[in-house]
## 1
Amino acid sequence: MMTPVKRVNRFFLLLTAPFLGLLICMWWYRPPLELDLDVGQFAPSSGPLNETAVLKKDLTLAEGTASYTIDAVSASAKLYKGTTTAMNKLVETAKTQASRPELIYNRRISAKLGIPSEVLSSDRIRIELYKLNPGNYKAYALKIKLKDPTAMQMSLAKEATGGAETTMHAVQSHGAIAGINAGGFADKAGKRYPLSTTVIDGKYLYGFEPTFKDLSFVGLNKSGQLIGGKFYSRAQLDQLEPAFGATFVPVLLKNNIKVPIPEKWKTSPNRAPRTVIGNYKDDQLLIFVADGYNELGSSGARLEEIQNKLYNMGVMDAYNLDGGGSSSLIFNGRVVNKPSDGNLRAVPTNFLFFE
């Protein structure tokens, strides 16, 4: 498709082409002077001086024509340059105006988080770290803009099935810049297995398992958008083209609407360390990690508190990930939160972010 600037360029090229052609012809082609040798046709006063005068007149006329042509070409070139500059400015202005709604929206959601304590930006990703203190608990948030869909991945412990590793180990071994724990797990015979439906590199780890016991799937699609919810058939999930994802419970927000929290999860435990992943309507991600010193229900955040907090911050969709001692937030080579176990817990899956 031809842009406005290209159309202007083409117009002025066509406009100046005849003048340039004329100049070239005048430069390279000099017609021979043809003299009529029939002396009978000349007046007695004709001779070399008269011929010189005629020739001088012709040259003067040619010089005037060339000068006019050069001035015309110069004026056209000046107009072309001016028009091109104006068109470029119009294009830049249009781009700026088109991005204004996005900038205004980003400022609005950022204002509700406060001032970032740390910012990392590259061609692939932008991460802003915020420290939050809602009152009843302390928390941290990462606001993440994926400029490249591959800047977020999910890792699976090396043993593939039954293995586990800390989020820090996963970050370091994969060369990531940030990471959080992902889905839940079940322990069996000394091994740790991802809970329910798990997708890694676009493939189902154990096959598809329909939603049961309020479990929900959450991950990224191939376009880098957060997807999640309850799925009762593989075809239903396949339509979203998941690149990766894990399973836990419950869903907190869907389309900026509070999803009823199952009674069991309101009190079991009442308070706890939490890890939640959500997204804004412009597809930026929000990672929310609440601190707590144990899993006994006396410290950390209640799910309803986090749900209300995210709702008020304008988050569209939000999914609770594994919490308690599993909650971990790694950024720029350090553990940001305070794991309730005193140390990072080894888990089967982690969401990783790459610079």
## 2
Amino acid sequence: MIKLLLVDDEQIERDALQVILEKNFANLEIRQAKNGRVAIEVAAEFQPDLVLMDIQMPGIGGFEAVEKIKLDYPHTKFIMVTAYATFDYARLAMKQGVVDYMVKPSKVADIVDIIGRVFNQIEAERKTQEKDKYQQDTLQKALSVFETDVVTQLLFDHVHEVHLNELVEMLDMEITEEKFVMSLLLPIGSEVYYPAIREKVRKAGSGWIGALYGRQLPIIVFRNKDLSFRSQAIFLAREILTLAKSNDDAGWFIGIGNVYSSLDQIRQSYQESLLATRDTMLPVKYRFYSDLPTLVPGIDNQTSKQYEQQFFEHIRSGQWGEINATVTDLINRYEKEGTNLLQTQQHLMELLWLVSQVLNEMGVEIESPIYPFQSTDYRQLRSETNHLLERLQQSYEERHANLETDTIEQIKQYIIENAHQDISLDEIGRVVGLSPIYISKIFKEQLGVNYINFLTECRIEKAKKLMRDPEKSLKEITFEVGYHDPNYFSKVFKKMCHASPTEYRRNIHA
């Protein structure tokens, strides 16, 4: 539907034009105005696509009305109508951006021809706008994919050396020098909160949201220099926790890692944030890693933290001999220090919970380990702890044993066939039934490359083939191979091929 406004101080002129237009064009909505003042008022409510404006009218004339309407509705088009075909009128019309000029009385055929050309112009512009909007919407979805994948790469030690900076640039978000990570634990089935959490982070300041892995959602937060670190973190934590309903807030908890000054160190903050969630039964539903009590007795706080970090790495690497040795050493330390048995069991419970969390993060689905009863002595505590560790190890090994030998080939084939789309680790995970983190881990371990590197290679190879067709523009090729920004495509292509797309194409057609 095209909205058209007829402006003329002669009723008979307006009615005659409306009859001609309705007879020759479909899908029109027509309004009338008897002078410039009324035209301005009607335009404010009607927002016409096209205005046929008489020039000479009492009060506010045609050119003045055009000027006022264009201020609020710059995309509205105007055809000036007058009984005087003078050069001065034509020059003023052109100066104001009027698309055409019609002398009355005009032949019906001339009226239809002039207005038909403008209607075609309006339709063409609408199609361009719709295409641009579709591309913008698609780009926003792609940026969301980029964001979660950048977080995954940064936090899980699979940083893509070539494209991380370009991905960060595409997110178009101010990155401060200092950053920290918050790990949000959610109740089972809380995926519905994901968009609201993202919105809370956006409103509170600058941050990247990772993918939801089981119950855990990692958030990289950029420091606000106008607030202290603790003030900023507490404010954001409280904002997020307002989303928890009173009947399910027991499942919500936020661990907060320390501040670091580079993206390379952000993984350390993530590990700290996850360690800070080891006791979720606190009355306050967030905790700073720096506030954690010493887990290992008999050593200073810094050494104890290093001990925890090392244990974290053993879990990630599946080093079960080291995990068992660490837990055994810890029990011996507690016993030697004469620590209360119930307190020791609680500390071990937190440590085993951490093992289960990291395993869940890697795609090993397992319930949190629980001691079936309160131990009566250290011997019994050792035995039951070893039993729980054996169960965790068994789940880990069964997951590896059940992993089909062709899983990587299945992932590769899926990427090759869908390289032109916005493929994310989450989407691949749904296809092959594995967690995004685990996919990233096994992909790099078995192929020696990051999955984004492989995806990029697939896209660039396809682009090279398409460049052989001289009829295809580089912009068309950009979208066809899966990118949404020709400038970004050009940067990636140049880094991969050591030549810009234009240079590469010139060489193959030389």
## 3
Amino acid sequence: MVLTPSRSKQGLFAGLLLLVLMSNYFAYRLPAIPVPADSRAVVLGSLLDFAIVAPLLILALTRKKGFTLKRFITFMVIGLVAARFIIPAEHFEPFKFIPYAAIGLEGLIVLAEIWLLFLLAKHLPSIIRTLKKENASGLFAFPTLVKEKVSSHPIISIVAAEALMFYYAFASWKRKPPVGERFFTLHQKTSLLAFNIMLIHAIVIETLGIHWWLHDKSLILSIVLLLLNVYSVFYFLADIQTVRLNPLKMNEAHMQISLGLGKRMEIPYDAIEKIEWGNEAGQYNLKSKDVIEFIARDFEEVKPQCIIHFSRPVRAILFLGMEKEFCTVAIKVDEPERFRMMLESKRSLPLPK
């Protein structure tokens, strides 16, 4: 097996992390390595390893999740608490306050995040009024308003995404899908909604059967499984409504495209470098990491009708408000000819100032 540069780096960081942990563990336990009577310098070196070196190595191992100060502080706190158990008590005595100080710092961060949630609750009525006044799509406008008025913190993004899920699952059934020449559906000629309904039925049947069987085996596990299944049903209900109520929309300067709660994107026309249509689009490799698909699932293989290449990476919002940039998007709509005519006309028009 040939190791790629990425995997070889992962192995190097994992090896270094293991070396740091094992060397600190055996430094206090091997008779061949006597610890001096005044061990404060040795313990201080170990604390630096657990508080700085080890967290940096863990961040390097999980770099795909991003290097953030909060993640570093979290790993630092975990490292210092672990040091309390690895370093013998007689050597750790002068530094016993450090883990408590680290936990206190993590507690302050948690309090700050709770404060952000209160701030979101405070601004929520004004955000809802703005959405109603502008008659904007909540799927796109709500997270943007939350970022503007509250924060772009990941906790807030997750809460906003969950709020959208519960809205579409319970409060959107009186709404009708928007229609007009600017709107294009992605699902009506596919089995996407039927597929989601089948999943809901399967989850309900599984809940009725497995929950009662598991109830006698493990009460806690049965309750956890029940809650996960109930959440899944709510999610798929919301996903159905999101698909129905949010067709692709052609605005003046950009188009808004989504496929359920799992992915959505605003594509500026000036970011489009090249478009492939028809057979050329159908033969495109969709497995690349730089490609995002807006193709409704069906019981048979579905190929894209349109491949749009960007001149610069364009941000997409994924599950739970996570963000990722893509260089290419694959699209399949129910009216491909009308979509092609309008998209080409939008690209040829001067953008509004």
